[in-house]
Design the sequence.
């Protein structure tokens, strides 16, 4: 049973979200600000955070900044009344995985929580299935229809990162730092070239997935249902 940490300064929102998630079988704990939430992360195993943006003492942005230093694999769903593109960009850059705007439908919140938990479970594996393609990080090989092949290392790492969290939007900086490292001295064109090569190598109609450009943010991988 997964444990969800609900972080919001509004007790009514905390109660609503907690009730929705508890009704789906999740264990739930609460925090009224980012500072209290960081303390709870150190006290118990938290599988996912539902995080408000605007809070006193420590807001959602600052919480993400601190949490990502120590909990890289912690899924974070931002729940906020601010839905502008600049707010989304800032959230994604700080490590938010998904974004839902108040007011929200209860079932949508539940479905997004379940989807995030599933994505992180996939990302933790050494083998990832993306449509009709299987990526094996142990051998850095790709397999489709029983035929194994090798692709350039950086293309593999980029595809593995995107495919490990299907549906998640990665900013350009996140992809560059995750694949090429913090000390990368090239430019964003390198990322675009590799994305183009992956698109050419794995056309959606043959492999069951596509890499979508998210204007103003970055890229995400989508699998055909």
Sequence:
């Amino acid at each position: 049973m997964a444990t969800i940490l609900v972080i919001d300064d509004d007790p009514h929102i905390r109660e609503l979200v907690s009730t929705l998630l508890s009704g789906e079988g999740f264990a739930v704990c609460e925090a009224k600000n980012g500072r209290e939430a960081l303390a709870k992360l150190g006290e118990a195993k938290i599988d996912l955070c539902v995080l408000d943006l605007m809070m006193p003492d420590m807001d959602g942005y600052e919480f993400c900044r601190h949490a990502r230093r120590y909990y890289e694999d912690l899924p974070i769903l931002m729940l906020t009344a601010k839905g502008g593109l600049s707010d989304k960009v800032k959230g994604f850059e700080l490590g938010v995985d998904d974004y839902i705007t108040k007011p929200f439908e209860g079932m949508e919140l539940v479905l997004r929580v379940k989807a995030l938990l599933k994505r992180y479970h996939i990302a933790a594996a050494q083998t990832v299935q993306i449509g009709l393609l299987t990526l094996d990080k142990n051998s850095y090989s790709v397999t489709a229809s029983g035929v194994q092949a090798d692709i350039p290392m950086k293309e593999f790492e980029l595809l593995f990162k995107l495919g490990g969290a299907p549906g998640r939007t990665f900013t350009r900086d996140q992809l560059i730092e995750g694949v090429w490292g913090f000390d990368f001295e090239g430019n964003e064109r390198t990322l675009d070239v590799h994305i183009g090569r992956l698109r050419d190598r794995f056309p959606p109609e043959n492999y069951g997935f596509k890499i979508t450009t998210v204007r103003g943010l970055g890229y995400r991988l989508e699998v055909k249902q």
About this structure: The first strand starts at residue 3 and ends at 7. The first helix runs from residue 11 to 22. Residues 3-123 form a domain with the Rossmann fold fold (CATH 3.40.50.2300).
